[in-house]
Amino acid sequence: MRLAIRTRSRAIAHMCRQSLRAIGLDSCELIDLAAHAEPCDRDIEIRDFRSGTGPNPSDCGGRTAYIYLVERSDIDQYLSETACRAWAVLQPVSRPILTSALRHAIEMAQSGNPAGVSGGRAAPLRSSARAFLDLQIHDQDRNRFLARAAHDLKGPLSAISGYCDLLLSGDAGKLGRRQKHAIATMQKSVERLNRIAQDFFELSARTDGDNIRPMQVGDIHQVLADSACDLAAMAKLRGIHLSTFLDICQEPVAYDRTGIERVMMNLIENACRFTPADGSITLRGYPCFWERRERRSPVLIDCERRTHHARLPNCYRVDVHNMGPRIPDECMARIFEEYITAGESPDRYSAGLGLAICRSILARHAGEIWTENRSDGPVFSFVIPFLRRSRETVHAVAIDGKLLSAGA
C-alpha cells in the first residue's frame, strides 16, 4: 500500500502515520509528492484542494483513491469541480476524521474499486460527500464553542478560588470552624470545575493538526518521579496511599513534559475515584519490550519464538493499579472514548474526558494506552517508545525545527 501526500500542511504526514497505526497499517509507504519530480504509482493520494487541481477524468477509472483537504470557503467549488468521487476532509484537519477517510480509502484501494468508479458500492455519492462535510463543519463548530466556553470559565473560577483563599487565610475577617469547612468544600468544587474546563479546552484544541507541541529528549524517569511526588500528596488527602516503583529509563525518550504530567494526573485521579478510602494505588514504571505488531492488544511479551536480542527493551512502560471494582466487559472497548465513564464512582463530577485525553497525548508520542482487569483490581498501562525506535515521534520532534536540547 502506497500513500502519496501533496499538501502545504507540515503536520499531515505525522497525522497519517498515527492514523495508519490506529488502522493497523504501519507498513504503508508514505510518499512526499513534492520531492518527486516524476509521477509515481500510489494507491491513495492526499492533496490540498484548489480550483482546477482535481485529477484528470482519465484518472477516475484508475486505481488511485483521492482524499482532498478542503477549506470551508471552497466546499461548493469542490463539489462542483471534482471529477472523481473522492473523500473530502475539512481544514484544519482533525485526526479522527482523517483516520475515518483513510480507512474508507484503503478499503476502496484494496477492493480494486476506487472512489472514482461510477456505481461502486464503496464510492461516496456527491450528496454523501456534502453530508460528510456538513458533519465536519458541525464538529469544528462544537470544538470552537468548547474552547471559547472553557477559556471564558477560567477567569471567574480563578477569581472564586482567589476569594476562597482570602477568606480561609483570615485576612478578611475571622471565621468559625463551620464557615471554614463550607468555604474549603466550595474551593474543592471550584477545582473540579477548573479541571473539567481544562479537559474541554484540551479536547477542542487537540484536533488542530498543525498545533504540535515541541518535545524534548531526555530521561522520562525524572518527569514521572516528579509527577508521582506531587500526586502522592493529592491521594493522601483522599485517604489513599500511593506506592511508587520507578526503574531507571535506559534510553532517551522524546516527550512533551506537560503532556506526560497530564497523563499521570488523569490516570491517578481516575484511580482515586474508584479506590475505596484507606485503599492503595500502585504506580510502576520500567523498560520493557513492546510487540507493536499486536494491534489493539499491546501486550509486552516474552516469547520463545524471538531471539534474545529481539526482546531487548524498546519502550518505557507505566502501570497504574488500583483496588477499585472490575471494569465491566462492555466498557473495555470504549473506555478511552470521549464522554465515556465506566462503573459507579462516588465522584459525580467526572465528564468522561480524562482517559480520552490520555490516549490523544500518547498518540502524539507514538505510544499506546490500554487497560485490563486483574483479580485485585484494574490496571491502566501505557508505553512510550525509546527514541531510537520511534520514527513517528522523531518526526514530531523535528517538525518546524523545534527540537529542544537533550535533558529534562
Describe what this molecule looks like in 3D.
The chain has 408 residues and is α/β, with parallel strands linked by helices. The chain has three domains: 2-124, 3-Layer(aba) Sandwich (Rossmann fold), CATH 3.40.50; 147-205; 216-401, Histidine kinase-like ATPase, C-terminal domain (Heat Shock Protein 90, 2-Layer Sandwich). 41% of the residues lie in helices and 17% in strands. It contains ten helices and twelve strands. The protein has a five-stranded parallel beta sheet. Strands 7-9-10-12-11 form a five-stranded mixed beta sheet, with helices on one face. Helix 4 (126-169) packs antiparallel against helix 5 and helix 6 packs parallel to helix 7 (257-274). The two termini are 39 Å apart. Residues 115-124, 294-309 and 389-408 have low confidence and may be disordered.
